[in-house]
Write a sequence for this structure.
């Protein structure tokens, strides 16, 4: 069963528009961790944020913000005032703590294209 | 600080040849992970090491694949013999400690093409 679902395959926006990427996860654990990674066209995977299951406080970092809602098992990511440099594939990932299982389960990724 | 270093960045080889991918984790990190990325299957964990010891190799597709970590600063992923379906981008990642809470830092990847 898919543990992390990113339903949006591709999103295309014009520069300065906001874009929200959806991430829905599935786990039976009470302790788990959620991550977002960015993969720009150059190919490397860049860590963006980590959130633990006990901290539902939303976080903002510059133009990036994250909305974690345990009630809906979602960890959505918003880019405000998008820029061309934001064009990339964004991956949501889940790491479950129980049983020493610290493997990251990645979603399929959402490709964001920001047009000038 | 240097990030995770992988070599080569690109590898083109013929079917049947041996391929060795190399990885140098971030200094001080004691967990190392090998991933494979394809369009069809996305990002898949192949194997991971903790303190140079292989912990879980259940993601290794078959016996043609092997990985070693002889010391804390070096790991290899070997494919012998290689097949066209092995064509993918292979990533190495490291994390500071073992545990679900620690983020993994990825290398730039090795793009492997097997003809």
């Amino acid at each position: 069963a898919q543990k992390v679902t990113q339903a949006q395959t591709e999103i295309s926006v014009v520069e300065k528009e906001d874009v929200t990427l959806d991430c829905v996860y599935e786990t039976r654990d009470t302790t788990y961790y959620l991550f977002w990674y960015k993969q720009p066209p150059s190919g490397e995977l860049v860590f963006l944020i980590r959130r633990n299951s006990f901290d539902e406080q939303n976080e903002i970092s510059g133009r990036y913000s994250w909305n974690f809602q345990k009630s809906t098992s979602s960890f959505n990511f918003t880019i405000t005032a998008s820029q061309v440099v934001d064009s990339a594939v964004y991956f949501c990932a889940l790491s479950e703590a129980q049983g020493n299982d610290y493997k990251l389960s990645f979603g399929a990724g959402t490709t964001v294209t920001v047009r000038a | 600080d240097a990030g995770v270093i992988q070599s080569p960045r690109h590898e083109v080889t013929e079917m049947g040849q041996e391929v060795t991918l190399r990885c140098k984790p971030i200094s001080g990190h004691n967990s190392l992970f090998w991933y494979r990325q394809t369009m069809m299957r996305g990002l898949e964990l192949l194997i991971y090491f903790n303190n140079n010891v292989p912990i879980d190799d259940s993601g290794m597709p078959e016996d043609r694949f092997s990985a070693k970590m002889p010391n804390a600063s070096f790991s290899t992923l070997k494919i012998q013999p290689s097949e066209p379906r092995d064509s993918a981008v292979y990533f190495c990642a490291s994390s500071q400690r073992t545990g679900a809470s620690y983020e993994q830092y990825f290398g730039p990847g090795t793009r492997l093409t097997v003809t």
In short: DSSP finds no helices and eleven strands in chain B. The CA atoms of residues 35 and 110 of chain B lie 10 Å apart. The first strand of chain B starts at residue 5 and ends at 7.
